[in-house]
């Protein structure tokens, strides 16, 4: 496999990897079977970790650079659920 084909394959694989949680969230939102937040830990092409979150109630997704930010988001999510 030549270099260009390898780069294209890696790019397609990254796109698919990023689309899977989006599609999953869309399906879960349509089915309305889950109400708890969803969190994924991912790595970029340089090996740096980042987190994606999804709120099935609002349908909003968020991006966080570290686990502390995710925990703060989850605490806020839990607090806001108590007040609904």
Q: Could you explain how this protein is built, in words?
A:
The structure is a single chain. With 84 residues, the protein is an alpha+beta fold. The chain has one domain (3-82). Helices cover 54% and strands 21% of the residues. The chain contains two helices and three strands; from the N terminus they run H-E-E-E-H. It has helices spanning 3-31, 67-82, and strands at residues 38-43, 49-55, 60-64. Strands 1-2-3 form a three-stranded antiparallel sheet, covered by helices on one side. The model has no long low-confidence stretch (mean pLDDT 82).
Radius of gyration: 16 Å
Largest sheet: 3 strands, antiparallel
Low-confidence stretches: none
Overall geometry: elongated
Mean pLDDT, rounded to whole units? 82
Give the ordered list of helices and strands. HEEEH
Q: What's the arrangement of strands in the largest beta sheet?
A: 1-2-3
Task: Tell me the β content.
Answer: 15-25%
Structural class call reads alpha+beta
The end-to-end span amounts to: 55 Å
What is the strand tally?
3
Total helical segments: 2
Count of domains: 1
Helix content: 40-55%
Draw up the topology in text:
Blueprint: H1 3-31, E1 38-43, E2 49-55, E3 60-64, H2 67-82
Antiparallel strand pairs: 1-2, 2-3
Can you summarize this structure?
With 84 residues, the chain is of the alpha+beta class.
Keywords:
3-stranded antiparallel sheet; 54% helix; 84 residues; elongated; alpha+beta
């Amino acid at each position: 496999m030549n270099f260009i084909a390898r780069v294209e394959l890696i790019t397609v694989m990254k796109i698919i990897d990023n689309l899977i949680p989006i599609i999953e969230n869309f399906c879960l939102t349509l089915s309305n079977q889950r109400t708890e937040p969803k969190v994924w830990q991912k790595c970029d092409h340089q090996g740096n970790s980042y987190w994606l979150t999804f709120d099935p109630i609002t349908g909003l997704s968020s991006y966080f650079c570290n686990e502390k930010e995710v925990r703060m988001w989850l605490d806020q999510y839990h607090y806001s659920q108590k007040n609904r």
